[in-house]
């Protein structure tokens, strides 16, 4: 699949520092995959050109096919693709039934229009469907679908729980809470299914809203019992052990983080609102520094160490940078030649493939070649 | 290693103390087995060692418990995590991460061990517990025995001096239970770990114990001593000990091998048992599955099952965890639609029948009886059951009183003991008078007394002409109760016949008595034969 197989290092050359060797199968740092896919998503959000969007989709799909592992979550790309198709279909159906905000002269067909009372003015049901409206809906829907596919790619390449595990020490407890919550949902679904089956055993019907509602209380009781059991298990395994730190340090850390975040929020507001706010950039930098320092100080309370942390080496840099490059190129291009990225629908024109953005999107393929292969269990 | 000094525990809303006057020392490197009936305080005692009692459960702890010199009153469970490893009854509730390797490392990460040490210990533990092939596997994809081993491994990596196990094998099939106990024994031998273990199924564990800690009843002071001596006094005993008491052997044998050596003379005295003519089923089958194929998700759970149930016959369904037992029971009550093949119960097609009609033909008590119980009190539950079944008001309550007298009407079903809850669920099911009764793993968590009551109840039901099918891992229960045994493996019935024939043919499913005095299956049979001797 990739050229690097031919150039693989001799096995003897892999020393103890070999985590950085591309020849050894290992998991890429989850953060790198998420940055890469966010880059692709940012690029996709800048264009409605269907050719470019499909190209982004293809790039993400190729990398997923080349670099996903065999864990259960590796199959989530297909699930997200299906979800994307559903969104696309819904968008088009709504455009047909409810009409489209873009007017158009090329009428494809006309649906019988439902007369609505006066208070529902502005809402239209049925009526003529124009080519322009359909194209608009199609492009918009496609963009949403590609955004979803980018998230799906990140999910398939690195499970969110692995990402949460690489949070800094001070945020570790938040991360665990999120992981526990994520495993909670599937359990809850299982409980509901089991209890609905049990309703049948009591001779009550298991269909309808009432059946689902009536199992609510037992499901909640079960969920509560399970969380208490998990909390007990985590406590006996040393969760929440803290190092002794001076109270002054703890207080400083506790104060720095919220103050810093407050600064970041107000600076972002300043940057995003109209008009120039000279204070915004310095406040933003100060806020980032303060919350970073708060997290670092807070991390000292945690005695936790990490088992086989994912290294951040050259492949991670390349992956993250390739995603950022794609995003940057499309944002820059959209600023200069917007018409190439948003093909006109009124009047309808055939979308063309702008060469420079297309070449930029292809940079997103880089991870498929420069990252190590994921380890596969030999089953 | 563990010392108790005048320890007592009392919970706020309880009538009496859960534990009283515990004053003993458990030496290092022993495998100590906690023995006692339900409600005698076994879990509470285990909790005091890990620090969960009183820090997590509440209640008042008097006296002093020290583990490796640390007073549990002043150390929270997390501060004891490096000396005590605890695994609860349900390993799935214990997991924090999602793959085997990360789960093994989790405890060490919390303690802040250096990465190099963690790496080495994970590898050692993978080898010690035979988990090396599963290292990257998702925890949700493991079988019951594998999960239990991973749970034990996950507390072992911090090298605790004490391991506390609460019913480690009660949810496992006989094979998986042996797998887990072999690991526990290896820890005691190779690492010198002190193990404190409670288990209802004594026949599985008593031969491994160095010491037995007997809790005779609620609030009575426990006794620590030699297993053979204490078994002579214990109110709960495995069949091998019962047999030894019956034959008057002293000291009592604890292993099948010991008992077999002693049994030579007894074996000669005993007549060949009159093979109870496993009366050919009278009349037509009341429920039948024919070439039944059922899929759960992408994998077929049942592949062409043939099974018929007859009135008055008790059938035991055995097989590994995941062999398809629960799916078969579910198909008989219409929870799963067959992919192909047919199911008929009392003339109905279960998955197409209305629940209201179906409960008059077949009733299922699920693995966790709590699933069937919604009401706030026992009395409400019984009233609701009468309404569901369109039975005379009071039917269910009368059934419950007949099955197990003395359950308080105002009790919340969740506050009942396991045995009482099972009986309540059975009464709820029986209110509709179904001719076919199915039970999924009914003896999980029951002590010997509750089990004996269940045996009585089911025998009476069969004598009244009910067809009973029970899925179980409990070989002793099957031998004692079932007229017929069917064995499921990989979704197919691999053996089906009179219980003596099936269980004597397989060492995994043979009860202890059958291994000592074949072809006798249970101690009461031997006792009856001895009585008839001149």
Roughly what is the average pLDDT of chain A, rounded to an integer? Answer: 82
**Biggest contact:** A-B, 47 and 72 residues
CATH architecture of the largest domain in chain B: 3-Layer(aba) Sandwich
How are strands sequenced across the largest beta sheet of chain B? 6-7-8-3-9-10
How many distinct domains of chain A?
3
C-alpha geometry of chain B:
globular
What are its keywords?
heterodimer; A: 379 residues; mainly alpha; 3 domains; two-stranded antiparallel ribbon; 14 helices; globular; B: 534 residues; alpha/beta; Rossmann fold; six-stranded mixed beta sheet; 21 helices
What's the quick description here?
With 379 residues, chain A is mainly alpha-helical. Chain A has helices at 30-45, 50-67, 76-98, 131-157, 160-165, 172-201, 208-214, 216-236, 247-272, 280-299, 314-336, 338-341, 355-362, 367-370, and strands at residues 107-114, 125-130.
What would you say this structure looks like, in words?
The complex is a heterodimer of chains A (379) and B (534). Chain A has 379 residues and is mainly alpha-helical. Chain A has 3 domains: 22-166 and 309-370, no CATH class; 171-240, no CATH class; 249-306. Chain A is 61% helix and 4% strand. The longest helix of chain A is centred in the middle third of the chain and has 30 residues, at 172-201. The radius of gyration of chain A is 26 Å and the shape is globular. The two termini of chain A are 22 Å apart. Chain B folds into 2 domains: 2-236, P-loop containing nucleotide triphosphate hydrolases (Rossmann fold, 3-Layer(aba) Sandwich), CATH 3.40.50.300; 287-532, P-loop containing nucleotide triphosphate hydrolases (Rossmann fold, 3-Layer(aba) Sandwich), CATH 3.40.50. Chain B has a 6-stranded mixed β-sheet with strand order 6-7-8-3-9-10, with helices on both faces. In chain B, β18 (484-489) and β19 (492-498) form a beta hairpin. The model of chain B has no long low-confidence stretch (mean pLDDT 88). The interface between A and B is large, with 47 and 72 residues.
């Amino acid at each position: 699949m990739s050229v690097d197989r031919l150039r693989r290092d001799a096995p003897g050359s892999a020393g103890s520092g070999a985590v950085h060797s591309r020849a050894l199968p290992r998991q890429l740092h989850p953060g790198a995959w998420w940055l890469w896919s966010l880059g692709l998503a940012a690029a996709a959000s800048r264009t409605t050109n269907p050719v470019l969007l499909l190209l982004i989709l293809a790039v993400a799909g190729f990398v997923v096919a080349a670099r996903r592992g065999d864990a259960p979550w590796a199959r989530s790309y297909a699930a997200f693709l299906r979800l994307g198709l559903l969104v696309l279909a819904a968008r088009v159906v709504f455009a047909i039934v409810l009409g489209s905000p873009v007017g158009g002269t090329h009428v494809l067909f006309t649906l019988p229009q439902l007369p609505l009372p006066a208070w529902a003015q502005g809402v239209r049901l049925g009526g003529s469907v124009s080519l322009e409206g359909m194209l608009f809906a199609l492009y918009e829907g496609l963009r949403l679908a590609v955004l979803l596919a980018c998230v799906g790619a990140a999910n398939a390449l690195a499970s969110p729980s692995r990402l949460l595990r690489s949070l800094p020490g001070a945020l570790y407890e938040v991360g665990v809470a999120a992981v526990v919550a994520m495993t909670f949902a599937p359990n809850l679904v299982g409980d509901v299914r089991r209890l609905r089956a049990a309703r049948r055993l009591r001779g009550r019907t298991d269909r309808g809203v009432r059946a689902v509602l009536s199992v609510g209380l037992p499901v909640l009781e079960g969920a509560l019992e399970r969380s208490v059991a998990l909390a007990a298990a985590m406590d006996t395994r040393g969760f929440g052990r803290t190092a002794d730190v001076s109270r002054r340090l703890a207080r400083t850390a506790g104060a720095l983080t919220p103050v810093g975040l407050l600064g970041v929020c107000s600076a972002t507001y300043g940057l995003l609102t109209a008009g120039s706010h000279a204070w915004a950039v310095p406040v933003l930098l100060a806020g980032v520094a303060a919350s970073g320092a708060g997290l670092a100080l807070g991390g000292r309370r945690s005695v936790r160490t990490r088992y086989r942390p994912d290294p951040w080496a050259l492949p991670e840099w390349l992956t993250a940078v390739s995603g950022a490059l794609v995003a940057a190129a499309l944002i820059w291009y959209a600023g200069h030649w917007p018409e190439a990225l948003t093909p006109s629908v009124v009047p309808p024109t055939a979308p063309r493939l702008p060469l420079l953005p297309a070449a930029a999107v292809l940079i997103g393929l880089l991870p498929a070649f420069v990252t190590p292969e994921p380890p596969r269990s030999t089953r | 290693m563990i010392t108790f000094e005048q320890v007592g525990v009392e919970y706020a809303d309880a009538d009496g103390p859960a534990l009283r006057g515990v004053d003993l020392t458990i030496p290092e490197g022993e495998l100590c087995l906690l023995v006692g009936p339900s409600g005698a305080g076994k879990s509470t005692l285990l909790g005091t060692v890990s620090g969960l009692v009183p820090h997590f459960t509440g209640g008042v702890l008097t006296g002093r418990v020290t583990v490796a010199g640390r007073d549990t009153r002043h150390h929270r469970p997390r501060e004891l995590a490096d000396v005590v490893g605890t695994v609860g009854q349900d390993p799935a509730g214990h997991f924090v991460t999602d793959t085997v390797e990360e789960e093994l490392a989790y405890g060490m990460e919390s303690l802040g061990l250096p990465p190099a040490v963690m790496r080495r210990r994970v590898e050692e533990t993978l080898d010690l517990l035979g988990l090396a092939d599963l290292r990257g596997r998702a925890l949700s994809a493991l079988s019951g025995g594998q999960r239990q081993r991973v749970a034990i491994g996950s507390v072992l990596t911090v090298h605790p001096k004490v391991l506390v196990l609460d019913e480690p094998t009660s949810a496992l099939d006989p094979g998986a239970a042996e797998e887990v106990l072999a690991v526990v024994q290896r820890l005691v031998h190779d690492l010198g770990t002190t193990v404190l273990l409670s288990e209802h199924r004594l026949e599985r564990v008593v031969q491994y114990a160095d010491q037995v800690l007997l809790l005779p009843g609620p609030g009575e002071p426990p006794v620590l001593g030699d297993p053979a001596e204490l078994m002579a006094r214990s109110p709960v005993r495995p069949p091998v000990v019962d047999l030894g008491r019956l034959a008057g052997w002293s000291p009592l044998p604890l292993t099948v091998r010991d008992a077999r050596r002693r049994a030579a003379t007894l074996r000669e005295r005993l007549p060949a048992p009159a093979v109870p003519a496993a009366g050919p089923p009278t009349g037509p089958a009341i429920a039948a599955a024919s070439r039944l194929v059922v899929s759960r998700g992408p994998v077929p759970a049942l592949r062409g099952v043939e099974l018929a149930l007859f009135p008055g016959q008790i059938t035991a369904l055995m097989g590994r965890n995941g062999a398809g037992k629960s799916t078969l029971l579910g198909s008989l009550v219409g929870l799963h639609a067959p992919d192909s093949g047919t199911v008929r119960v009392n003339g109905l097609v279960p998955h197409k029948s209305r629940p209201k009609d179906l409960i008059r033909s077949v009733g299922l008590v699920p693995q966790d009886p709590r699933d069937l119980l919604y009401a706030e009190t026992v009395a409400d539950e019984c009233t609701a059951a009468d309404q569901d079944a369109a039975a005379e008001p009071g039917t269910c309550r009368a059934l419950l009183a007949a099955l197990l007298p003395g359950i308080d009407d105002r009790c919340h079903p969740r506050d009942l003991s396991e045995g009482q809850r099972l009986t309540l669920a059975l009464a709820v099911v029986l209110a509709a008078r179904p001719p076919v009764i199915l039970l999924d793993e009914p003896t999980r968590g029951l002590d010997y007394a509750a089990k004996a009551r269940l045996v009585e109840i089911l025998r009476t039901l069969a004598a009244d002409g009910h067809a009973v099918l029970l899925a179980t891992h409990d070989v002793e229960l099957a031998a004692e109760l079932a007229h017929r045994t069917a064995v499921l493996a990989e979704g197919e019935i691999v053996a089906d016949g009179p219980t003596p024939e099936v269980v004597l043919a397989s060492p995994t499913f043979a009860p202890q008595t059958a291994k000592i005095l074949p072809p006798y299956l249970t101690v009461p049979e031997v006792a009856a034969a001895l009585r008839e001797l001149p």
